[in-house]
Amino acid sequence: MNREELGKKKVRELMKLATSLGIKGAWSMKKDDLINQISELKSNGDKNDRIQNAPIGTIVAFKAPGGRIRSAKIKLRSTANRRLLVCTEYDAEYNISYDDVIWVKSGKRWPKGVYNLLKGRAADGKQIS
Question: Is residue 40 domain-shared with residue 52, that is, in the same domain?
Fold first, then answer.
């Protein structure tokens, strides 16, 4: 499905599609954001493909031990074990599973839902208590 076809869909249809594709925070996105995220996801393949094809140094959002969402650069990758060694900007290193990766950053901005999670808010923007 190309961008033109996505543009003809209703927002609710795009939200359902985005959710089925595993895009976090889809229900709080605007139509243009939904189209961008779906297009990017479709062009990059599924999450495992995006992780495996991301160059070393790519920033990912991931679930750290304790459940906090953090971001870090990929330092090493083990495709056979489905694990990444990532390093934060403060030199903390985490050995994480592909399953803990929430998003592989490919543009200048995080999707709104992922950004909210990184800021300690729910994907919809409400503060987590």
Answer: no
Query: Could you give phi then psi for residue 49, rounded to 5 degrees?
Result: -65, -40
2-54 pLDDT, tens per residue?
Answer: 778 899 999 999 998 888 777 878 888 899 888 888 877 765 556 788 898 89
Q: What is the DSSP letter of 109?
A: S
- The answer to whether position 118 is within a domain reads yes
26 and 82 share one domain: no
Write b or e for each residue in 95-116: b if 16 or more Cβ atoms lie within 10 A of its Cβ, otherwise e.
ebebebbbbbbeeeebbbbbbb
Q: Which residue has the tokens 């592909």?
A: 98
Asked if the structure places residue 128 within a domain, the reply is no
- Domain range holding 72? 47-123
User: pLDDT-derived band of residue 75, with 50, 70 and 90 as boundaries?
Assistant: very high
pTM of the shown model: 0.64
SS3 107: coil
